[in-house]
Amino acid sequence: MTESQATQALTAAPERRDLIILGGGLVGMTLALAAARAGLTSFVIDRADPADLVAEGADGRASAISTASWNLFANIGLGPRLDALGCPIDSIAVTDGMKPGRIDFTPKPDEGSLGRMFFNRDLRMALFDAARVEPAIAWKVRTEAVRRDRGPHGVEVELADGTALRASLLVAAEGRQSPTRDEAGFAMAKWEYHHRAMVTALFHDKPHDNTAWEIFYPAGPFALLPLLDDAEGRHRSALVWTVAEKDAAGVMAMPDAMFVHEVAQRMHGVLGTIALAAPRMSFPLRFHHAGKVVDERLAVIGDAAHGMHPIAGQGLNLGLRDVGALVEVLTEGMRLGLEPGDAQLLARYEKWRSLDSFMVMSVTDGLTRLFGVPGRLPSAARRLGMGAVQRLPVLKRFFMDEARGMSGKLPELLQ
C-alpha cells in the first residue's frame, strides 16, 4: 500500500468513541451527559427530530422525578436550568375510591419534598440544550442503526446513510420496542394489563397545595399530580386516568366537555371546577422485564429493559437509576484500566440493577392487582390495611423512601 492509500484508509476509518447510545430520549440523553461528566465520549443515535419532540403542544405529558433522580440531574449540571420548572410534591394522598381510611404521606419540614413534577418537554429541552454544547457527545438525529456488530474488540454500528461508527460499548435505550434488545435475543417476562392510561393536564380553580392524589378505583388508578401554575396564574395538575382497554376507545372518542365531566365525577371536587389544559393522549399499559440486561459489549437500560404500570410513577426513575449505576460501574472500571465494554464491568452492572428493578416492578405490579379487585369486602380490607399504614410511622417512612427513590444501594450520582 502506498503512503497515499494508507492516508486515505485512515481518513475513511470510522470514528471511535467509548459508547454508542441507541435512543436519545430522556434516559438515553441523560446517560450521554452523565457519561460525559465522567470523561466518557459517546455517539447518540435517534430517529426522531429534536425539534418535533420539543414543539409546543406536541407532548403534554409530565413526569414525577424522585429525589434521587433530581440529584442525578443536579449532579450533571442541569439543576440551574430545571430548578424553577418543577413543582414540588410535598405530600401524597392515597385513597380507595375516596372512601374513609386514606393514607397521607407528608414528610417533616426539614426532609424536603417527595419529588418534583416536570413537563416532559421541559426535561427534553434542558437535556438537548446541554447535549448540543457538550463536545464529548456526537448527536446523530433523524437516522437509525441498520446494522449492529458486536465482537471481542468493540462494536460497530452502520447508520441509514451508510455512516459507520465504532465504540467499546453499545447501549440500547430505545424504549419498550427496542430492536437491539430483540436482536440480541433477550428473554422477556411480559403481560398485558388490558388497561390504557388517559393522560392530559387540567386547570382547576382550587390550589393543589403541592399534593399528589392517587385514587384507586376497581377499573384502575386515577392520579392527579401537581404542576406549577401557568404564566396567567392558573392552577394546573397532570392527570393519569387508567381505564379498561375495552372502554378506552369510547373514552377517547368523548367530546372534551363529556371527558371533563367524567373526570370531575372521579375527583369528588377536591380541586374544584376543572378544564382541559393539554391535549388528551392514551397509552396501552403492559409489564415487561428482561431476564438479562447485558450481553457481549451490550447494556440495556430504561424502558428497553423494564416497563411497568404507572401506578407509582417509577418508570422513568427506574431508568435513571440504570444510568447512575452504569456510569458508576464504567467509571470505576476506567480507574482500573478497563475499557467500557469489559465483560466484568457489565456483569457488575447487571447484578446491581437486576434485583433492584425486579423488586420495584414486583411491588408496582402487586399494588395494581391488589387495588383492582372489585367488591365491598376487598375494598374494606384494603382500607383497613391503609389505616394501619397511616398509624405506623415505620411503614410510612418505608413508603416515603421508596417514593423518593432513596432506598437500596444508590449510585453516587443519585445521592
From TrEMBL:
Pfam families per record: FAD_binding_3
Obligatory cofactor(s): FAD
Lipid metabolism in keyword set: no
Annotated transmembrane regions: 20-40
Protein name from the UniProt record: 2-octaprenyl-6-methoxyphenyl hydroxylase
Family membership noted in the UniProt record: Belongs to the UbiH/COQ6 family.
Stretches assigned to the FAD-binding domain: 18-354
UniProt entry keywords in alphabetical sequence: FAD, Flavoprotein, Membrane, Monooxygenase, Oxidoreductase, Transmembrane, Transmembrane helix
Record GO cellular component, one term: ubiquinone biosynthesis complex
InterPro entries, A to Z: FAD-bd, FAD/NAD-bd_sf, Ubi_Hdrlase_CS, UbiH/COQ6, UbiH/COQ6_monooxygenase
MF GO annotations: FAD binding; monooxygenase activity; oxidoreductase activity, acting on paired donors, with incorporation or reduction of molecular oxygen
An annotated GO BP: ubiquinone biosynthetic process
The species this protein was found in: Novosphingobium colocasiae
Pathway: Cofactor biosynthesis; ubiquinone biosynthesis
